[in-house]
Design brief:
The protein has 9 helices and 9 strands. By secondary structure, it is an alpha+beta fold. Helix 3 runs parallel beside helix 7. The protein is globular. The N terminus is likely disordered.
């Protein structure tokens, strides 16, 4: 574990590009890597940097209490490599995860030199293969509990209007009851947990790879299909042809399942709550969050929701 030198912990700071950059420099120094001119690719649940001096991705978790979870992610990545499953790979030769001033850091092989996403059809192929794998018990995957996440996200909301908070709490309670009554039809087992087109990249050698393994858990497989359906049906982020290709290649259309609307409502709420946690540090999130809450409250169109 790497500790600070009497300075205020980064974990006590807001999670910004600047605070993440400070953690990046310290973590790279400990790992013998050069952080000069690193490019920030994402700033969400993780700060994701691509190094310029080596084909390495560095991920810094927003949640300072994520050490156990990141240890599990590393185990999952190594097991997927053993299965020859096309997923992102942890960087060999580096002890990980590391803790730097309260932030948890992992190092990954960089799959590409510029960001290029694969297709929905390829996502369907990878999910179908993933869902056939039988995970070993030593992965110690948790059971997926969406409402544990929902209520934790509600507690972490800061800087939002009181009426928005009250509405979201009521909405969460209503959906919790509806979710408990769902009758899932797909097998229970290992899921990716955040399966969407933003988490499938085109490797520099041409094949598709699944990234962001943080959400691996045990759950009804419907959870790995809902984002693609939601992005198509409500947000218009996918075309009909793209969605139909996804359905054809996976072999199941979630939108024909009677529980789809409830599951979509839950996932939509989770996305909105995630955004609400960033309103004090992200100007785009501060603009987008109240729009989403208003649309959920009034049943308004989601077609102008912006992807993050």
């Amino acid at each position: 574990m790497i500790s600070g030198n009497g300075e205020e912990s980064h974990a006590a700071e807001e999670f910004t590009a600047e605070s993440a950059g400070a953690v990046l420099r310290e973590a790279c120094a400990a790992a013998g890597l050069d952080p000069a001119d690193a490019k920030l690719l994402r700033l969400g649940s993780n700060a994701v940097f691509r190094l310029s001096a080596a084909p390495v991705i560095v991920r810094i978790a927003r949640d300072p209490d994520s050490l156990d979870a990141m240890e599990r992610v590393v185990r999952v990545a190594r097991w997927l490599r053993e299965q020859d499953f096309p997923a992102t790979r942890v960087l060999p030769g580096v002890s990980q995860p590391q803790t730097v001033d309260g932030r948890v850091v992992t190092f990954w092989e960089s799959d590409q030199d510029r960001t290029e996403y694969a297709t929905l059809g390829e996502l369907a192929d990878l999910l179908k293969t993933l869902h056939w794998l039988e995970e070993p018990e030593d992965l110690r995957l948790p059971y997926y509990d969406p409402f544990a996440r929902v209520w934790a996200s509600v507690r972490r909301l800061n800087g939002i209007a009181d009426e928005d908070r009250a509405f979201l709490e009521t909405r969460a309670g209503e959906l919790n009851k509806e979710y408990d009554r769902l009758d899932f039809v797909l097998p229970f087992g290992m899921i990716h947990g955040d399966a969407n087109v933003g988490n499938i990249l085109r490797h520099r050698d041409g094949h598709a790879v699944l990234i962001d393994l943080d959400g691996f858990s045990l759950a009804p497989r419907e959870w790995d299909l809902v984002l693609t359906a939601l992005y198509y049906e409500r947000f218009g982020w996918h075309t009909r042809a793209e969605y139909e290709e996804f359905v054809h290649r996976y072999g199941f259309d979630l939108m024909n399942w009677p529980g789809y609307q409830v599951l979509a409502d839950v996932r939509e709420l989770m996305m909105t709550l995630w955004l609400g946690q960033q309103v004090t540090t992200n100007e785009r999130a501060a603009e987008e969050f109240p729009r989403r809450v208003r649309d959920i409250r009034t049943g308004g169109s989601r077609r102008d929701w912006q992807p993050f």
